[in-house]
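Reopening this one. Same input as before:
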Amino acid sequence: MDFEEEPPPKEWGLDPFFFMFAKLYIKDILELKPSKLGRKIHFYKSHPVTKVEILGAVVFKQEREKFTCYGVDDSTGVIKCFCWKNSRQNKASDSGQSIGGLPMARQQQELQERSTLELGDLIRARGRVKTYREQMEVSAFSYCKVDDPTLEVQISWMREVPRLYRKYYDKPCLGSSAGKRPGDTGSDGPLTLSKLVALMVEQLREFLRESKVSTFSLQDLETVDSLVSVACRPLESTPTEEEAEIAASNAKRVRHVFTHAAQKLEEEGLAFVKKCYPVKVYQVTVKDQELLRVTRQIILADCKLPHNADQGCHFLSVFRSVTERFRSVNKAALRQVLDALELSSDIVSSTGSHYVAF
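Same output, byte for byte:
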């Protein structure tokens, strides 16, 4: 099957695209191909796309009784984005999931109501793609005005989207028959339990970056359908006896995949253990405001010492002081914190391992 061909419906749910908000260029959204089966689903190459996220400038605005139609321009194209005044999508999702006690849908609705968008404003929207009179449109589930005076959001977007295209969008789905010849298992080989964990790590990175979640437990993650669907994907190789026992039960498999994926995020420093009792709770590293504040204060105080006057505070010195307060923070997590503080101009690296605070 050629990569451009539409995969059979039984494979749609195997592709994370089917559940995620794909960050596509508007030009590519406008050129999405409708399914040959006539269902309300479109394809980017062989990936099934139902929902998208867009970021762009408002170039026209049409007010109606029940909705406002914005023309959104991301410099690759312009698409109509319908934002409903009665927030019917959000009201329908109010009974949905709450991660870590965070009522996301309600917060999104309140944010929308405070957002007044005019021509030239930057809008971020998430919604379903659909075809109306042979034109692609976005029907927004959520949207908001983005205040971006330093262009930080737009620069981050311009860095992230090309990476997503290179790593995921322009490649066949892992485990899909798209892009494979008969008998070919693909360059990455068949989907094993370890590869499923690696795939979940990628999904969790995206989920934690895009959501407002700052703390999470494994039980919280198991309430997110899009993540659970990835963990339950069928394995394509003959598992070992131990893997077979895990794969035989969906509950065991989901817990195994989430546990090992969370451990990988911890090793990378993207999260650290906040508390262990009665359940293990992870903290998203760069969203821990106390950790950011304490780290900056440590660097600020150490830079006043005479031996740090020239180059600033050394990384290892900062690490020793931080771990006195946050014992489960590893060096990779501290690197994440220092990068975040440097991005916000709270500190600056004077050398590869020395930092100065302002």
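So the earlier flakiness isn't reproducible anymore. For the record, Residues 250-268 form the longest helix (19 residues).
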